[in-house]
Amino acid sequence: MKEKMSIAKLVKRKTKYDLKDYCEMRGLSAYSLYKGYISKKAAKILMRDGIR
User: Fold this and answer.
1) Count of beta carbons in the 10 Å neighbourhood of residue 11
2) How many Cβ atoms sit within 10 Å of the Cβ of residue 33?
3) CA distance 33 to 6
4) How far apart are the first and last CA of the chain?
5) For the chain, does the N or the C end have fewer beta carbons within 10 angstroms?
6) Where are the alpha helices (DSSP H) in 1-52?
7) pLDDT tens digits, the chain, 52 residues: what are they?
């Protein structure tokens, strides 16, 4: 059974940055991603970087 990974772990695995630094570089809100809200803008940026 495949378990779900947190957004922080997915970002760390793909980019080697922690979530706070990644959001700062991309202009995203780290707080909303920690809470689980992913805006359309954030979704596009994450998909462009290969994070599903």
Assistant:
1) 23
2) 21
3) 10
4) 18
5) N
6) 7-15, 19-26, 30-35, 40-48
7) 567 888 999 999 999 999 999 999 999 999 999 898 999 999 999 999 998 8
Sign, CA torsion 38/13/9/25: negative
How many CB atoms neighbour CB 22 within 10 A? 23
Distance of CA 46 to the CA centre of its chain: 6
Phi-psi region of 25 (alpha: psi -120 to 50; beta: other; left: phi over 0): alpha
Predicted local distance difference test score (pLDDT) of residue 2: 65
SS3 11: helix
**Tokens linked to 45:** 């940026």
Token pair listed for 11 = 């970002």
